[in-house]
Structure to design on (1168 residues):
């Protein structure tokens, strides 16, 4: 697939031959050749956003309209993030582009899977619209598992083969987003196989997601179609996947970091073509303070990757994974997505160029953000709630309650039945400092909710409420105190969503994410300040917990114990684990 | 592009999970992983021609219908030849497959450019038909330059955008064959740009051919569309091309060997993804005695390539060049094209498997050749010829004659005007042992011919005649004696073409190539015997010349001095260099 389809071949050829003036020449640089692995002095000429020449040091520079003196810096292709959810940054696509362009990111492939679970196809179109004409080239994938488990959860939309087909025929949608229902796929569940067939018959990209899947089932999963994985949790898992031909997207998100372990599965291989980098879920504060994909490069280098390898993962290899034949290298015919860097260390580039135009310099975006219309600012539909709705009623005497164990106990949330004291017909947790009550309220007008006790989340008192609750993004609360839970929820209802923290009858912090209850359209600085304040409140109230930790407790695609708006499920089962059972 | 489109996903998945019996398991092997560069013990399971599992050493083997004990040998993917002309092997495709399958070749991409110049689209369809159901997967490219220089030569066909369009829409034709008119392309000649446009609009593969092209013109050539080159003649040329993103097909043909020089341009690079191997023009005797693509691997290793790199060039890299996503590696979902090897040294494999079926063992093909109908056995259309037609008449007195200098003098044939004695109105060469007369007769009924003296070809006496004369494949003779030339030509007229050698009034050798005057349908053993006999006669008569050397003297796409059926051209010019000029 060629990206630079706008270019007129004849003009480019004439420019290469000196018969036509170039738009841009970059002189005095050390070219990092992502094809051969060499670094050498060169000059680069650009017309119509396309590289037309890479000149030897000795050759005279042409009289281009603009000439940039690279002052001896490294010139590299722009970075390509192979998998992320823009929604997780808490920014809308136009603001996201403003935030990541200065870090050298020029192309992303996003799965708009969060907003799709809330707003359906309209949500995906919002992402497409809001990402137009930004300083980052934004591609999307059709969210393949909306919702992950229709039998046991409900969100704002359901995608079957028809919806997927509509999306796949939409420009800038490259294929199927992470096929995370790997168990259903291994079992040839008709819904998932039909969705895959829509992608396969178009020759579209089929993105995988298969944590801890190995052996015969991994082979079956690969045979079903998915070509990539970004969920490796160990060296062995990463090694097996890359050996079997999967594209391995090494990630360092704000939620998890298995980068070192997975990198160890590939970094010493003779050939590493199928290795790229991704961010998956990073929020605005991480981007603001530490960077975007360059942060993953920096971490990979710290974990022992050769810097040239790390940059290749994020450029040439990423482009090849998606079949972009004119991205990821600096050569005639390639799109002029470029960055000038002082060092090959994952730092912030001095200059970032998209399609031959300067978009960021010394950490600042040079492009004004579009002033787009506000969308989806009123997405929380709940019944009237009172304090008792945040308590957990026990139906009869002599029961044990299924308690979810937060993941400090293992790689995924565990759980087991235990006897919890009861007072006035409700679970009584006050004397057990490790316990809290978790609620998931359907926020799409269905009027249902589910609850379970949770052990070890770390919450001391008060409550946290959030409309970020993967993947259906229902309203989730974790509380020691039901009054505080109600305060937090009311704050979210007023703002349109986000994360709220309350204790001792007071609202302590409130991160307002009005767009679909997931994203803000505020300028980055303001958003990051709100995030930091809320993060601080969360970590003070819930020792050891980060802002987005609770967002995964409803993620039905994950192994372990999960709470949806309908009940508890374990290991992505399509049936519920009863909250109560008769005492033995 | 997926090759294994025949496979049913559900069956494969079930086989991977042990729910369905596999056709084949291969045990006790050292798997050479062309993705990672590792070698490790494994077992491989195949169903319906597709690999469904690569098992760890420890895992039990399933009860497959057939089990092969690899006896500890290396298991690798089959070899892929990225560029060749089957016609140059002198075998028809069905016989060619018989000859190369035992050497481990499982896929080829051939440019049927020779027969296209003779028989047009019908010729291409003959190659498509005759290559069906053979032990090698045969793809083709649409010959892009038929003929190379329509203004200055004539063959049996002319391809414009319409003919190219028809071919590109034909199954098993992957793109445009070598775009060797690089000068015309750099100058945006409408005919070539229109032909390229037919390929580009289909996203088809555009194969390049640009010997010695560097700098601004090379950039323009790349911008025009061609993505590969197999014509590197020096280390510097190869380095420049690979740096600029071209796929470099390193070759060792029967005609030329720049493998060492071009390999030196890439072998020490950190990344070598864009390097593959090809044979271009090898004849049957080379294949019979030394091998096919494995011969290039062997030579590359001798020239310092790491054996793992060399095998990767010929498998994984080749597959990626053409966008075959399921060839070139051993992993679930890949087509089961495999070879078992005792050593990684370019030797003959112990066993060759195509789509899960054994096709060759210990150097012998296990598949019976098809008994196809004979085609194109009467393609020489000449006017009646007499002895004087093989002499060179001088039109007036006091002229100098343009004399082609055979390439011992430089990388390509040179030439200059010189004074040559005249006797009875004809050039008189008898007293100058370095001189001979070269003729090219149109053999497609056009009744025209051209001639020039040739210096340094090495011919002592007699004559050589050939219907192999790139690319129009007119009838070419090089003679010291016109009577012998007539004898040789008459032999070719009788057999339907080939190469004939005569001296002292006698036919010394006659390699009969009845199919289009280029190929034999005789069994390999008989053909090779004839080739050897003729080769011996040629080298005895023409010191230092090989069988196919004269075939390039009419190749208008080559730099240097060339003789077509219409006259002399230099450096692919579209105008003739006069044979005679007035003495200064």
């Amino acid at each position: 697939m060629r990206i630079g389809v706008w270019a007129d071949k004849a003009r480019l050829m004439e420019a290469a031959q000196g018969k036509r003036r170039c738009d841009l020449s970059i002189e005095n640089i050390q070219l990092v050749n992502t094809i051969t692995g060499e670094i050498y002095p060169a000059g680069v000429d650009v017309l119509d956003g396309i590289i037309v020449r890479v000149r030897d040091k000795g050759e005279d520079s042409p009289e281009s309209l603009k000439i940039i003196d690279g002052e001896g810096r490294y010139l590299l292709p722009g970075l390509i993030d192979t998998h992320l959810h823009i929604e997780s940054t808490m920014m809308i696509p136009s603001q996201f582009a403003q935030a990541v362009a200065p870090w050298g990111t020029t192309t992303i492939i996003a799965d708009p899977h969060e907003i799709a679970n809330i707003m359906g196809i309209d949500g995906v179109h919002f992402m497409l619209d809001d990402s137009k004409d930004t300083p980052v080239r934004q591609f999307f994938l059709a969210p393949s598992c909306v919702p992950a488990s229709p039998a046991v959860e409900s969100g704002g939309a359901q995608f079957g083969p028809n919806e997927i087909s509509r999306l796949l025929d939409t420009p800038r949608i490259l294929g199927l987003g992470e096929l995370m229902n790997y168990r259903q796929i291994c079992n040839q569940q008709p819904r998932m196989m039909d969705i895959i067939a829509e992608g396969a018959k178009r020759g579209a990209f089929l993105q995988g997601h298969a944590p801890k899947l190995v052996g015969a089932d991994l082979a079956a999963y690969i045979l079903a179609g998915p070509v990539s994985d970004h969920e490796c949790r160990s060296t062995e898992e990463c090694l097996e996947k890359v050996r079997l031909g999967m594209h391995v997207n090494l990630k360092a998100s704000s939620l998890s970091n298995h980068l070192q372990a997975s990198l160890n599965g590939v970094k010493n291989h003779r050939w590493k073509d199928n290795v790229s980098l991704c961010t998956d879920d990073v929020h605005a504060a991480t981007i603001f303070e530490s960077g975007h994909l360059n942060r993953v490069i920096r971490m990979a280098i710290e974990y022992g990757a050769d810097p040239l390898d790390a940059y290749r993962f994020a450029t040439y290899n990423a482009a090849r994974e998606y079949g972009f034949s004119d991205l990821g290298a600096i050569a005639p015919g390639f799109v002029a997505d470029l960055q000038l860097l002082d060092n090959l260390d994952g730092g912030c580039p001095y200059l970032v160029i998209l399609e031959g135009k300067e978009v960021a310099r010394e950490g600042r975006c040079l492009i004004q953000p579009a002033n787009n219309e506000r969308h989806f600012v009123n997405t929380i539909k709940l019944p009237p709630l009172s304090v008792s709705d945040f308590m957990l009623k026990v139906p009869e005497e002599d029961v044990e309650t299924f308690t979810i164990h937060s993941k400090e106990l293992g790689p995924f949330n565990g759980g087991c039945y235990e006897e919890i004291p009861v007072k006035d017909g409700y679970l009584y947790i006050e004397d057990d400092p490790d316990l809290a009550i978790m609620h998931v309220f359907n926020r799409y007008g269905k009027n249902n909710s589910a609850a379970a006790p949770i052990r070890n989340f770390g919450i001391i008192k008060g409550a946290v409420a959030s409309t970020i609750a993967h993947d259906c993004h229902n309203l989730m609360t974790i509380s020691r105190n039901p009054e505080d839970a109600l305060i937090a929820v009311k704050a979210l209802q007023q703002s349109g969503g986000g994360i709220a923290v309350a204790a001792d009858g007071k609202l302590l912090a409130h991160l307002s994410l009005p767009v679909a209850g997931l994203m803000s359209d505020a300028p980055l600085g303001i958003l990051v300040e709100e995030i930091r304040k809320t993060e601080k409140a969360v970590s003070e109230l819930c020792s050891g917990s980060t802002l987005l930790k609770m967002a995964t407790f409803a993620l039905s695609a994950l192994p372990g114990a999960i709470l949806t708006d309908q009940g508890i499920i374990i290991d992505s089962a399509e049936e519920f684990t009863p909250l109560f059972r008769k005492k033995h």
